Structures
1.
Amino acid sequence: MRSDAHRPSSQRFIPVAPKLEPALFTQAATLIAPIAADAPEFHGPSIDEFFPETLFQIGALEINRIHLIQFLATAAIVLIFWLGTRRMTVVPGRFQSLVEMGLDFVRVNIGEDLLGKKDAQRFLPILTTMFFMILFMNITGIIPFLNIAGTSIVAVPLTLAIISYVTFIYAGIKKSPKNFFKNSLFPSGVPWPIYIIVTPIELISTFIIRPVTLTLRLLMNMMVGHLLLVLFFAATQFFVVQLGGWWTVLGAGTLAFGFVFTLFEILVAVLQAYVFALLTAVYIQLAVAEEH
């Protein structure tokens, strides 16, 4: 046999180093896996928070956490107004004065300013109910242990928008049974050919868009506000409690943002109650206007 020294260079055996890459990757993954498993994870807010689990069931009605918050807000409204008006005196006390200030705010700034005294008196109960119901259910979003607005699920904003819509149509028909829809869809002073464009726009904007915008405006504001607050305070807990060390500095920053947005959320809660009741009064005022 010929030795390797006498073989052509192309036929000589050249030892090849074993491939270590798979082994190295396997060892690295083995070392990193326990660290990755023990590393804290940040869990941000989820849309699932607006679909909580059922706590108990009454017949076909499923009661969850948000429903309980709605019941609590409603009970708080009834209790406050009952305590504030059960023994009314000519010279009111502090609590009675506070309740009267709230009622006067709705009566003057929402009712009489837009509808006048006569029509404001007619529709004041529904405007007052809307304002305080939305306010109390909005404010639960910043109350500890509740932490979510009762208006952050579509049922409440949609119900109130339908009531506003029905009240608007009722006021218009009551004022002018024959001409309400005619004047709404065919405004005076418009040339007849232009009605081909104007009438569909009026139909959509007046009778379709209004309840939709009322619903979405309130719902989206409350949902976004809740998600932002959960994001900031969850981040604070993550940086301070789970990571610690110099991450605490970031935790202090997210805590400050959370506090600022809590104050902002109080403003939004009041503003959304005011806007909803105000727009309802505006729609009623348009319905009872003289041209109808």
Note: The first strand starts at residue 54 and ends at 58.
2.
Amino acid sequence: MKEYTAIIFDLDGTLLDTSEGIYNAVRFTEKRMHFTPVDDATLPEYVGPPTLFSYKKHYDIDDDTAKKAVVHHRKYQSEQGVKEARPYDGMPDLLAMLRESGHKLGVATLKRQDITEATLAAASMLSCFDSVRGIDMAESLTKSDIVNLVLEDLGVKPEEAVLIGDSAYDAIGAGQSGVDFIGVEYGFGFKNAQEIEAYNPVFIAYFVDDLIQFFDHC
């Protein structure tokens, strides 16, 4: 089995269940912008993709209106949402195991940098990582761009790293950056293992315990 020097995690739906804060941010934004609320079944689609993309997708609005919506969304996220994220069961144990075994750990997320750091800090996880990279203010960075920044921070080659994520954004970003991909089915992006298999992952995890077992044998 291949040994990895660096393990890179997506945040939303992979490290943390951030759904409560994101859903509340959407409802907060809808009220401030006087949008017709989306139905509850649509809310999971906001977990993972860039915020600007989500608002343009789900409301009939132009770019300027979407940017104003993002301001409200981020206001809620930075003031309250960062406190509403919860680690998935077993995640602290996985991170402790990986650090003890000498792996370099990184976070690559499409969440904004400052909100990413605040969210991890509130969950007592920020200090677990050697590199934490989020999206820029203009949301111009792709997932691959962010993964590449983490690789540079960690000083590792793409073939030495693996990205763990719960969505097509993660899988595509991993492929574009030349790193292996592990898909998790417990998050929000992938609906089932068949969707993950389409991206040729090196492993599929249904629970965090599956990741613990996988890396325990690496």
Note: DSSP finds nine helices and eight strands in the chain.
3.
Amino acid sequence: MKFTAKQIAEILEGTVDGNPDTEVSKLSKIEDASEGSLTFLSNPKYSSYIYSTKASITIVKEDFHFEESISTTLIRVKDPYKAFSTLLEYYNQVKLNKSGIEEPNFISDSAVYGENIYLGAFTYLGKNVKIGNDVKIYPNCYIGDNVIIGDNTLIFAGVKIYSETVIGKSCVVHGGVVIGADGFGFNPGDTGEYSKVPQIGNVVIEDNVDIGAGTTIDRATLGSTCIRKGVKLDNQIQIAHNVEIGENTAIAAQTGIAGSTKIGKNCLIGGQVGIAGHLTIGDRVKVQAQSGIGKNIQDDEMIQGSPSFGYGDFNKSYVHFKNLPKIIDRLNQLEKKDKNG
């Protein structure tokens, strides 16, 4: 699909400096761009590339002044980075704008769906499934009985959504995600064997939640595992049964959260963090990567380490961690002097 500089400027509320009929059909970095591509210049460190870029169109700041001749058509905007992000979003919407129901698939007689949906091939819709308007479900997805999916939600290929799950509006669920599998509940017997504790709850995902590829969210034993609105989950995260994650919290890849832990609003949790079960983590908490959380955390704390403790204390202590060999050598030398009188 091709766009002219004039069309792009209208989308971005910018002005064209050059040929308004210049066409582009792809997006590129300014240093790697080729003819027919669109790029942007935001960081001054990349300013030199504006004179050598082969991009047909470049988005720049309104007050940008070039000191040498350029061949690229300019679109001037208030904020080039934000404008380019807007364009990426628009491009993605166009690229993903599929509709219709492909064959083969299975749709239960009791399943209902709204207008302008896309249902990819080899997809299964179970009993009493309810799907809103403008939902897109890519091929090879399993949607279990009694699942509800809100308007404008995007489910990528290979997602498995178990029965009773509720997903809100404008969510994005990437490939390989499993929502609603059984929580890890087993009772040890007298002779060492385990008996399974039935997991009869569900998963509730509110509006505007993004879930990265390969992430798993377990159903509750009773009640609901809850992912509140605006939460952003990276790839390969494990969320156990009855966990609650507060609004607008963002969690990086490979983090694991054990059962019944409650995480507050607007938290930032780094990659490979391990969080024990039955804990309460406050609002606006920041957890550094690879930390191990074994106790409750108050609002606004920043922590690091395994087991974790205050971020400032960790940094002060780390200076001593690095010097431990030298400190031990000095202690050994002092002990020798004491023994030798």
Note: Residues 84 and 264 are 32 Å apart (CA to CA).
4.
Amino acid sequence: MKFTAEQIAGILDGTVVGNPDTEVSKLSKIEEGEKGALTFLANPKYTSYIYSTKASIAIVNNSFKPEQEVSCTLIKVEDAYKSFSKLLEYYNQVKLNKSGIEQPVYLSDSISKGENIYIGAFTYIGNNVKIGENVKIFPNSYIGDNVVIGDNSVIFSGSKIYSETIIGKHCVINSGAIIGADGFGFAPNENGEYTKVPQIGNVILEDFVDIGAATTIDRATLGSTIIRKGVKLDNQIQIAHNVEIGKNTVIAAQTGIAGSTKIGENCQIGGQVGIVGHITIGNNVKIQAQSGIGRNVKDNEVLQGSPALSYGDYNKSYVYFKNLPKLVKTINDLEKQNNGNN
């Protein structure tokens, strides 16, 4: 799909400097620009590339004044970075703008569906599923019985949404995610064997939740596993049964959260963090990557390490840890000196 400089300027409320009929059909970094590509200049460190790039169109700030000849057409805007991000979002919408029901698919006769939906080939949709308006379900997806999918949500290929799951509006579930599988519930009997504890709850995703590829969220034993509004989960995260994650919390890849833990609002959790079950983590908490959390955490704490310490205590302790070989050598030298004096 091709766009002219004039069309792009219209989308971004910008001003064209150069040929308004210049066309582009792809996006590129400014240092890798080629003919037919659109790029942008926001970071002053990359200014030199504006004079050498082969891109056809470049988005720049209104304040940009070229010091030498620029070969590409410019689009001047208030904020080049934000404008390029807006254009990426627009491009993504155009790219994903599919509608209709492909064949073959299986759709239960009892489903209800809104206007302008897309259901990709080889998708299975079970009984009593409710699909909102503008929902897109890409090929090879599984939607179990009694699932609710809110307006404008997108479910990418290969996702598995188990029965009773409720998905809010404007949610994104990436490929390979599994929402609503059984929680890890087993009870030992008198023979030391483990018996499965039925998991009869569900998962609730509120509005504007993003779920990364291959992330798994288990259904509750009773009640609901709840992911609140605006939560963003990276790839390959494990959320256990009856966990609750507060609104606008972000969690990086390979983090694991054990059952019944409650995480507050606006938290930032790094990659490969392990969090035990049945604890409460407050609001605005920051947890550094590869930390292990085994206790309740108060609002606004910043933690690092395994088991995690406060960020300041961890850094102070690490200074001593780095110097342990020197400290051991000093002690050994002192002991030798003391033995020699004796």
Note: The mean pLDDT is 93.
